[in-house]
Specification:
This protein is an alpha+beta fold and 116 residues long. The protein is built from three helices and five strands; from the N terminus they run ααβαββββ.
């Protein structure tokens, strides 16, 4: 049975379950499949990544406090987060994956990290 590369269509030589003729074709194929399909998606994902990096940088210990001004000075965008957690006590945490924050009094924020 002759198999062909999923990327370039060349004949594959080698193992029976091989799908690509080379690492280059495998990488090109996976890059095409995994790329963000639109500029909008790419921009949102970039903002989420940036927000996550900022929270991770400021919250090394797993729980810390910071100010709104410090977050904004680093480029944090409060409009982009991955989920909201409402606690039984009525507190609202905004999360970027496992890094979260909650507004306290006087523009202070508590930063937390979920154990995953």
């Amino acid at each position: 049975m002759n198999k062909t590369c999923l990327e370039c269509g060349e004949k594959i030589v080698g193992r029976e379950d091989k799908k690509f003729c080379s690492d280059g074709c495998r990488n090109a194929y996976n890059n095409k499949i995994n790329k963000d399909s639109t500029n909008f998606m790419r921009n949102v994902n970039n903002k989420l990544r940036k927000n996550y990096r900022i929270l991770s940088e400021l919250n090394v210990e797993g729980k810390s406090k910071t100010t709104r001004a410090k977050l904004l000075s680093k480029g944090f965008d409060f409009e982009f987060f991955t989920n909201i957690l409402q606690t039984k006590t009525g507190n609202t945490y905004y999360f970027l994956y496992d890094q979260g924050y909650m507004l306290l009094d006087n523009d202070f924020y508590i930063l937390v990290k979920k154990d995953i």
